[in-house]
Amino acid sequence: MTLAIFYKLLAIFLTVGLGYLAARLRWFGEATAAEARLLSNLAMNVFVAALLFRTAARIDFSRLPWPVLMAYFLPALALVLVISAWHRRGSGREGAAPPTAQGSPAIPATRSVAATYGNAVQLGIPMAAALFGEAGLAIHITMVGVHGVMLLTLPTALAELAMAHAHAQQHGAAPLSKVLLTTVRNTLLHPVVLPIVAGLLWNLTGFGLHPVLDEALMLLGSAVVPVCLVLIGITLKAQGLGGRIGEAVRAVLPVCLVKLVLMPALILVVAHWGFGLSGVPLAVVVMMAALPVGSNALMFAQRYQVLEAEATASIVISTLAFVITASGWLAVLAWMAA
Question: 3-337 in CATH: which number?
């Protein structure tokens, strides 16, 4: 753990703390869950959408390091499917509950986001720069470019499919074609998927982004990190530090273990023994997998109005634990390189 990364962690907690303080001082009104969702909707529908569109529109597919990307995203996507299936099987009652209830069918997909989507920007970029230099940072930034595209699209599709299936069960049997059509429509119109699809389609035209449009999208996208961190603090205040937060702390321990231990272990095995990666590329993908839960986990939870306290707790606890687990994974990588 370098001093630069430690300072970045402190800056993250300071920003979250400022959001909590602002909510305590009622700068946002009463700072209820409804107000937190309002800010979350603004962030997802405007700032995140701009960031995702710009990212998808600027991807240069001919220069992507495909072996590195496959070594990371294939096991990561498989983990999303496994986690979602595990939670669906372990809670059979969820499919019959209303979409906004505690038993929402969107819960498995929401937990899969928390367990696989890491803090790849505000913590991952300075980590890669400090630990691996320019070569490692270039690989990490390339992976960041497709991070949201890959690890938000699949959970969104899973959540919408589960919601459509539950709705069909509650309102009588519906043809499979109708369920799939509803899923595809809701997935494509989702504020995460729509800008990605639009950006990819624009990318295929070869027109590029006009400098003015590119600058506007970059400005909007730059708001994602501070707004999301402030949102975490507001949600902590809105949910309360006792009661449900205390229960959420116990509930997120498995999620944190998957994100901080299981996922990097899986990536290490697949990347090294499956794709033959070593040296800096291997270290970059393992440490990216080892990053704590990203703030998009909270926005995803607030989108479906489920597990909001749990998502907030998973971000805070995994970021605290990252101080220890990151050192452990760096030691493993040093041992393998020796």
Answer: 1.20.1530.20
